[in-house]
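Re: the 273-residue chain
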Amino acid sequence: MEFISFVGAGPGAPDLITLRGQARLREADIIIWASSLIPEEMLAWASSEAICMDSAEMTLEDVLLVFEQHPDARIVRLHSGDPSIYGAIQEQISWCEHHERPFEIVPGVTSISAAAAAVGRELTIPEISQSVVTTRVARRTSASMPASESLAGYAQLGGTIAVLLSGAHPERVAEELLAKGSKFSPATPVAVIVRATWPDEQVAMTTIGDLVATVTELGAKRTLLLLVGDVLTTTNIRRSHLYSPAFSHRFRSRSNPGTTAGRAKRRANRSVR
């Protein structure tokens, strides 16, 4: 039996797939991909002999039938972003385990990483936020959301929140972010990123108080991601310990800034020679 590879295609830009993901596409006999979430240009990495199936209109049963009917084919199940985050791959993995079909997961660049790059900010700044929560609000799929994982509950913790799959419900997002006990306020910054890394990417900076108006103006409901938290605009940034000369770790002993700068300069000079 051949492997089934669950490959993360990344957030959209064809060159943001990993080298391993590219290799799996080149080797694949069958590729199952979602045209609604992954640009067709991504298939340029595939062999001209590969069979490409669009999963946009396929059910889980349709996909599993392809797995079952082609035990000796190298199959790539191409998912947007990283397949382990809202990729709906666990039921496919369970099928593989039940049928003793070998499989692998090839990680992908997440839309959250792409969104942070689009706004040019770090999401974990010392003393501002050291945690990033990835979540969503649920409507039609509310039965799948554990009661203890509400957006309002996470808002009571503060930090940085990435809200996915919720572009159609900005009112609900704003309401939960400002629910009783929230660490946020109407002035808390929000970045709205639509189709991150795609040619028609849109980025809008707003606040929780103006979130509904901003999303409405953009006119996007799908492939929309929200980043929430003070990391997006704060300028009062404490220096990280990681590269501080006063902070030692396994690979570097504590020293004064002048000594550290001198060592760095000598290394740079040696590398030039």
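The beta strands are 4-8, 30-33, 51-54, 75-79, 103-106, 132-135, 160-163, 189-194, 202-207, 224-228.
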